[in-house]
Design brief:
The protein is an alpha/beta fold. The chain folds into two domains: 59 residues, DNA polymerase, domain 1, CATH 1.10.150.530; 267 residues, Aldolase class I (TIM Barrel, Alpha-Beta Barrel), CATH 3.20.20. It is 35% helix and 18% strand. The protein has eleven helices and 14 strands. The strands form three sheets. Strands 3-4-5-6-9-10-11-12-13-14 form a ten-stranded mixed β-sheet, covered by helices on one side. Helix 11 links the parallel strand 13 and strand 14. Helix 1 packs across helix 2, helix 6 packs parallel to helix 9 and helix 10 packs parallel to helix 11. It is elongated.
């Protein structure tokens, strides 16, 4: 007997799905129906596809699987933030976070299982990179959070940030495909300007994003604007130094005309001196940019410590007096380890 290896149906483009139906002697419009079930209605099972005949559903089941994610575990913080442990079809777990504020509901999603980049202050770095997420696994995290936004807050999802586990630009193709679905009328129909991809700043990928004319926002986790300091906390800086990053960002701005956001944590004894702040200012003046000074979320006993309020005020004053919009970002979801850099599947 011939055994069919069942494929993940959401890896097929609409055109491929059409070709499949034609191949099976069915009408190509069935592909549109299935596509709608998969991407607009987030069907988890072929039996939900009620406008297909039982025979068609059976035929689909023989050829395909739907590898939908499962929210395995949910925790809510005192500040309303919700952290999801998301189980993938192969049993691996990633985390995603819903962050409510007065005006927004933001989904913070993961792009990889673990991370390969070894930033010294980040809990995810301690999990080695196991694999990239597929586009549908990224998309499903957004859909799950959109449903939670409606269910728990009675408000729509307004923003998506790629600030969960992993480095999105090392899983570029799948991230792009997920964003296409998030922004598509045949998906979540969300505006690109509400999506932000956050990266350690891989220069050649930033150039590629500029060439691809992507429409979402770019955030760069800078954390230091002197090579020696940055290399000591972010090893990627050894092979991808600030000069190259700066050039890539200039190229991005020339092509895209969109401000870059820098994420920056100020740590005691590491980057809390005026010299470091001046280096950041100089870097910021290369391309139109704004700075988020992020509160540090401790991940161990004391190697990194949040700088004093006066050091942060020194940064803010220097940047703002030179025309750089600077926001101080307080952590959300700290009590459930849902804050930036704390995602590490600790309780699983
Ligand atoms: N790899 C991407 C996506 C991760 S985003 C990137 O680096 O941008 C997570 C954000 O949280 C990054 O800005 C990261 O530098 C920051 N971060 C990591 N660990 C942190 C910690 N312990 N406290 C505060 N921010 C942290």
């Amino acid at each position: 007997m011939e055994t069919i290896v069942r494929r993940d149906i959401r890896k097929l483009k609409l055109e491929e799905l059409k070709a499949f139906f034609v191949d099976q002697g069915e009408k190509p419009f069935r592909a549109h129906q299935v596509h709608e079930w998969l991407w607009q209605k987030s069907a988890k099972d072929f039996d939900q596809m009620s406008n297909l005949s039982l025979e068609t559903r059976l035929m689909l089941k023989q050829h395909f699987v739907i590898n939908h994610i499962q929210v395995d575990h949910m925790q809510q913080s005192a500040d309303g933030t919700i952290k999801n442990a998301v189980k993938l079809h192969d049993g691996l777990i990633v985390e995603s976070v819903l962050i409510p504020t007065e005006k927004r509901i933001t989904a913070c999603v993961s792009s990889q299982v673990g991370c390969s980049l070894d930033c010294k202050f980040c809990a995810t770095a301690r999990l080695k990179r196991m694999r990239n997420l597929n586009a549908d696994e990224i998309y499903d995290q957004v859909v799950a959070i959109q449903q939670q936004a409606e269910l728990f807050f009675n408000r729509p999802l307004t923003n998506v940030v790629f600030m969960g586990m992993g480095e999105p630009l090392l899983n570029y193709t799948n991230v792009l495909e997920a964003i296409e679905k998030i922004t598509s009328q045949k998906g979540l129909n969300m505006a690109s300007k509400r999506i932000t991809v956050s990266t350690v700043g891989i220069a050649k990928m930033i150039q590629k994003m500029a060439d691809d004319e992507v429409k979402f926002n770019l955030a760069v986790s800078l954390h230091a604007a002197l090579n020696e300091t940055r290399s000591s906390i972010m090893p990627i800086n050894d092979t991808n130094p600030l000069e190259e990053l700066g050039e890539a960002l200039e190229y991005w701005y020339q092509k895209r005309r969109r401000k870059v956001t820098y994420e920056y944590v100020v740590w005691k004894g590491i980057n809390d001196s005026p010299e470091q702040a001046n280096a950041l200012l100089k870097f910021c003046l290369r391309v139109p940019s704004k700075v988020n000074l992020i509160e540090y979320n401790p991940i161990d006993a004391g190697l990194f410590q949040q700088a004093s309020d006066s050091a942060i005020a020194m940064y803010q004053h220097l940047l703002e007096s030179n025309g750089i919009v600077t926001r101080i970002r307080k952590s959300r979801g700290k009590d459930i380890d849902a804050a930036c850099g704390q995602l590490a599947n600790k309780f699983i």
